[in-house]
Write a structure and sequence with these properties.
Layout (H helix, E strand, L loop, with lengths): L7 E3 L9 H10 L9 E9 L5 E8 L4 E11 L2 H17 L4 E10 L2 H10 L5 E11 L2 E10 L7 H5 L6 H7 L2 H15 L5 E5 L4 E5 L2 E2 L3 E5 L4 E5 L5 H9 L3 E6 L4 E6 L3 H4 L1 H16 L2
Parallel strand pairs: 4-5, 5-6
Antiparallel strand pairs: 1-6, 2-3, 3-4, 6-7, 8-9, 9-10, 11-12, 12-14, 13-14
Helix pairs in contact: 5-6
């Protein structure tokens, strides 16, 4: 026989025995209750430089994705949004090898809050989760519901490949000297596959193999330099190796999985050995995807 039991909803904020610390304890015991997938607890009350403390830092066990989680009792407010984004920004700058997502958890996520947050969604990876506490007898449980999910961003090639251009476009946007740097790097890539050729798009110059995109490296020519973007996994050792070789490393884009390296005329001859290694590593990474 099935027995009906009434659930009593509680306000954590006004409850004499419950607290944000209690909520943190429950999530720390089992981070999966947030509904973010198979995640583990990496840190708690994580000190932020010149800021406060991040409530919880979670990480997906199968990927390089991290979640910066901020908890708010009661209704969300402007300071909660600012604090969550600030902590997310600090963490992504300190650890660019990971893909970072801000997570706001609150008892009451208002429509005004959703309207404000939705303006950032897509530009700032952000998830809003509403939590409810219920009592049954002498037991209290938590229910978490995602009310605003992160917008899934398209792959770099999906939209940009639809806008083909030509070499003349890039020689005007950049210069003939910087576009010629792409030719030199293409020759390094053709060591691994002779059928590779440059493919000119409006946002970047990529590679094509048999007419199909093969963008394990791509290029963005400027007037005085070219931005070279090989795609492979970030490690601090790789970054140190590139920088110690004398390359001008501009950073790592964790969403696209690409290093950004600034090359000026003459740099390829100067750094040919390390650049050949980078191209080879990017090609090898593309072969196992």
């Amino acid at each position: 026989m099935i027995h009906y039991t009434k659930f009593e909803q509680l306000s954590i904020r006004s409850h004499p025995e419950l607290s944000e610390q209690w909520v943190q304890d429950r999530i720390a015991e089992d981070p999966s209750i947030l509904g973010l997938g198979d995640v583990i607890l990496k840190d708690r009350e994580r000190a932020q430089p010149r800021a406060g403390r991040l409530d919880l830092l979670l990480q997906d066990v199968d990927t390089d994705r991290r979640f910066e989680v901020e908890i708010q009792l009661g209704a969300t407010d402007e300071s909660h949004i600012i604090r969550s984004i600030e902590y997310w920004d600090i963490e992504r700058k300190r650890y660019p090898q990971y893909e970072h997502t801000a997570v706001i958890v609150a008892e009451d996520i208002t429509s005004r809050f959703l309207n404000v947050v939705s303006l950032f969604n897509g530009m700032i990876p952000l998830i809003a989760v509403q939590m409810k506490a219920f009592r049954v007898g002498d037991q209290v449980g938590l229910v978490f519901t995602t009310v605003l999910d992160q917008t899934t961003l398209g792959l770099v090639d999906e939209d940009e490949e639809k806008e083909p251009t030509n070499r003349a476009y890039w020689e005007q946007r950049g210069s003939s000297k910087t576009v010629s740097l792409a030719d030199q790097l293409l020759e390094m890539a053709k060591v691994h596959n002779k059928s590779l050729e440059l493919k000119y798009n409006k946002v970047y110059i990529g590679l094509a193999k048999d007419g199909q995109p093969c963008n394990f490296i791509l290029f963005r020519p400027k007037k005085r330099f070219i931005q070279f973007e090989p795609r492979f996994k970030y490690t601090s050792e790789t970054q140190e190796r590139l920088e110690s070789s004398g390359l001008d490393v501009m950073g790592y884009n964790s969403h696209r999985g690409r290093f950004r390296i600034r090359l000026q005329p003459g740099d390829i001859e100067k750094h040919r050995e390390i650049l050949a290694q980078v191209v080879a590593e990017a090609f090898a990474a593309s072969e196992v995807e």
